[in-house]
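Thread: "does anyone have the structure for this chain?"

Original post by V.I.:
We have the sequence but no experimental structure in hand. Need at least a predicted one for the grant figures.
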Amino acid sequence: MDVDSQKSAILKWLATFPPGVPADDFPSLNDGRRLSQVLHTIAGDTFSFAELPEADGASWVLRSSNLKKLIKSLRTFYNEALEKDADFDAVVDVGAAAKGEDEGRGALALAKFVLGCAVECEQKQTYVQTLMQLDVSTQTVLMGMIQEIMASTTPVQRTSETSHDLAEDAVEADNEAFRMQTQLQGELRRKDDAIKLLQDELAQIRTEQANKAKLGEEAAQAGTLRCPMSMACIRA
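Reply from O.Q.:
Generated one for you, tokens below.
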């Protein structure tokens, strides 16, 4: 797969994104701005990347600064969103790319990494469908570059210190969950005790009311029995 075919395919793919910084040829990618805009479109929902300053006609130092910021953004997205790692420094000579002395190899390498972001991010189905709308020859070249990028990345390795920190966080989370569970159980027991106390008091009130009603009935019956006797005595 020759480099010119790769560059042509990348430019066609970049043209599928919303208009932004013009990128009609590969030298226009050397300041990193167009690639950064495309990366922001792909990863904007996950990460916020500052827009790079215009470096057209400026010294190579500003272009170099832009490319370093782009590489930092790519590394962040690959490490945190995709949980993958790549040796960006080994494939991009920032100084040569910024000076335009690498025949576009640095910009091409970075464009491939941006392409890798598109086909592995959460919205990858959308970007793959867009890719499939390009002509067959362009699709073939892009698929080859995607395979190349996937082969060059590796899963992020957790250090023993990081693993230890994660284990401590897990233990603390378990302890916190246990504390919350214990607290909730205590509150439920207190509520149960309060409900039982109210029920006991209610039962006692009902018993007292029943006793009073019974005494009232007995008193009424006793009065009825005494009344005829009193009338008889009066008549006598």
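V.I.: this helps a lot. Strands lie at 84-85, 154-155.
O.Q.: and The chain has a mean pLDDT of 78.
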